[in-house]
Amino acid sequence: MTEPLFAITDRPISVEDVMKKVMRPEAGAVAVFAGTVREWTNGKRTLFLQYEAYVSMAEKMLAQVGAEIVEKWPGAKTAITHRIGKLEIGDIAVVIAVSSPHRAEAYEANRYAIERIKQIVPIWKKEQWEDGSAWVGDQLETTAYPSGKPEVKEG
Amino acid sequence: MIRLLFFAHLGEQVGEREVTWLHVPETVKKLKDEVEERYGVSLGRVMTAVNEEYACDEAPLHEGDTVAFIPPVSGG
Predict the structure, then answer these.
(1) Which residue of B has its CA nearest to A95?
(2) Which of A20, A25, A134, B72 has the fewest CB atoms in 10 Å of its CB?
């Protein structure tokens, strides 16, 4: 059975399962990142989150992130699983595992992966605040755009 | 005929996640103009994917394409 390295799921994510996908004899390091649902953002309380994805394309774009990593850090191997649906505080939204012969590349590549997810992978987060809800619309997770007319922010 | 997909706030504004568009405009830009006019939405900051590949405004459209409107993403 071959588990896909890049997946969108509506089930809870097992950190260990994602990590196991990249473990191999050539690797001396595995960097694992878990993105979790935060309760407080600038003094505002989140009750829960709703994630939505363009699933087929999102899985392809996650694979592209993995391909970019191999290009930049030859020898690195990446697995990413992102969860969609309703997530409660503390739930894991995304797990990124990168293995490589040495730790420096694993750390760097893992950081690169989360930044690229926030740029190119079609996944959206809807915040259910204590006092309302809004789609979160930029990579810094600070600007909501309930009107659909967000301010343009230069990256 | 092309298939349009709307995500996140766009799906809520349009009231549909998926729409069949009978007319096939020549380019993404022309489709965006038609969609903005039809639904009163702004696609200014919205990215477009044609058949699951990001496409620029000048990209041509063809019968049977699937066009997705992708607001700024916020995964992670």
Answers:
(1) B76
(2) A25
